[in-house]
Amino acid sequence: MSHQIELRELRLFRGVAEHGSFSLCAEHCGISQPALSRTIKLMEDRLGVRLFDRDTRTVALSSYGRHLLPIAERVLREVEAGLDSLDQLASGARGRIVVASLPSLSATVLPRAISAFRETAPDVEFELIDALSGDIAEAVIQGRADLGLALRPIKDDLFNYEEIGLDRFGLVCREDDPMAVGPRVSWRDFEMRPFIAMASNSSVRLMTDAAFVQVRSPVKPLYECSQMATVGALVLNGLGVSALPRLAMPLTAASGLVWRSLSQPSLKRSVGIITRRNQAVSPTLASFISTVIRHSDAVLGRCKAHLSQADGAGDAG
């Protein structure tokens, strides 16, 4: 048997049980006593049981009413808690944000942005996913991530993309390497040195390969690495040199390395925020996106200043 009971009816049933009186409950709930009595009678008719034993003086729960009361209280408690949570989510006070990000942005832009955001929204939870650009776009389009920090998507008709900066590629070598000082370095300068590359499925590798093709250089990697920390360790141990974006340098975790801007060609990649087109953006997510944009300036601004200095002086980065 299907029983159609409304939340309003459960609240009134609970009210009569708590007050032990139809008149007191009606006064507390702001309705007339006849209307309250009709509501309870309709509930009893639909359920097929009597919920209250009542006479001219007293109102008490029947055995059926005593069975229903904890159920009604649990249902109302869960509904009220859920609606309160929804209100907090809508106001931006609570929520959960899933961010899929390039490791270089996870290590530089995200920590600053999250730290600043939590000062005003400490109850918002975060899940961070480090991934390659293609996987980030897939996570966003499938709804597994609320936003991505990645390269500009190829299929930009599926996404909204807001650029937060340009990340330039540069030579990575040891501090005592001859290439660490002197004239500007170009992509052809890698021809006489062992080259350490990222894995073939990474966006960094695709861009470095394209640069070598553009200058018709026969550079082939001697080592291929899936992690930038491994690239840094190999370079630091004198096994070769590499080319990485400026923002990737914190991931190399090596203090004895130098980054120098590369020219001929000057290779840059656009990095930014991607969301699904026509995605419903909550106030919480919108506020966090604004925070990311604001605090990315601190990181990318330093990179830009460094690049300008390197372009002008040709010194080690």
TrEMBL record:
InterPro entries: HTH-type_LysR_regulators, LysR_HTH_N, LysR_subst-bd, WH-like_DNA-bd_sf, WH_DNA-bd_sf
Pfam families for this protein: HTH_1, LysR_substrate
Keyword Transcription regulation: yes
Any one Gene Ontology molecular-function term assigned to this protein's record: DNA-binding transcription factor activity
Keyword Cell membrane applies: no
HTH lysR-type domain location: 5-62
Listed GO CC annotations: cytosol
Keywords: DNA-binding, Transcription, Transcription regulation
Source organism, top-level taxon: Bacteria
CDD domains named among the record's database cross-references: PBP2_LTTR_like_4
Similarity field: Belongs to the LysR transcriptional regulatory family.
Protein name: LysR family transcriptional regulator
Lineage: Bacteria, Pseudomonadati, Pseudomonadota, Alphaproteobacteria, Caulobacterales
